[in-house]
Design a protein that fits this description.
By secondary structure, the protein is α+β, with helices and mostly antiparallel strands. The chain is built from 6 helices and 5 strands. Strands 1-5-4-3-2 form a 5-stranded mixed sheet. The longest helix is centred in the last third of the chain and has 24 residues.
Length: about 130
């Protein structure tokens, strides 16, 4: 008989990203690892860095043992709902960030336009003086 598990969106899982409330998503399953943070051999900061995204690659890259994978099942609270978008806020902020970056670059260009002009001017004068001596 199939077991019914609760479905969580990535957005829901990503909201649990503190030491007092920590969820991670690995292989399409959602784990509440809050009570395990202090016992994690790699330290709690490694686990906290993996919140808010699919941490499958991070988990596999760390080379966890079979017993670690079995221990994970104790912390499983549900599965990831793949029908919903991953995290729509990240897409919005990344667009704003790109606009923000290009805007900052334009502001710096306007503010410091004299530096490259001065370098070119000095180069022309030095070149002229060098050619004049010959």
């Amino acid at each position: 008989m199939p077991s019914l598990t609760k479905l969580y969106t990535m957005q829901e899982a990503s909201q649990h990203n503190t030491k007092d409330d920590c969820w991670v998503v690995i292989d399409g399953k959602v784990y509440d690892v809050t009570s395990y943070l202090d016992e994690h051999p790699g330290g709690d900061d490694v686990v906290l860095a993996a919140t808010g995204k699919d941490a499958t690659d991070n988990f596999e890259d760390a080379g966890h043992s079979k017993s670690a994978k079995e221990l994970m099942e104790d912390f499983c609270i549900g599965e990831l709902d793949t029908s919903s978008p991953i995290i729509p806020e990240l897409e919005i902020s990344s667009k704003k960030e790109a606009t923000s970056y290009s805007q900052k670059l334009m502001d710096l260009t306007r503010q410091y336009w004299a530096v490259p002009v001065a370098i070119v001017g000095i180069s022309v004068v030095v070149g002229f003086l060098y050619l004049r001596k010959k």
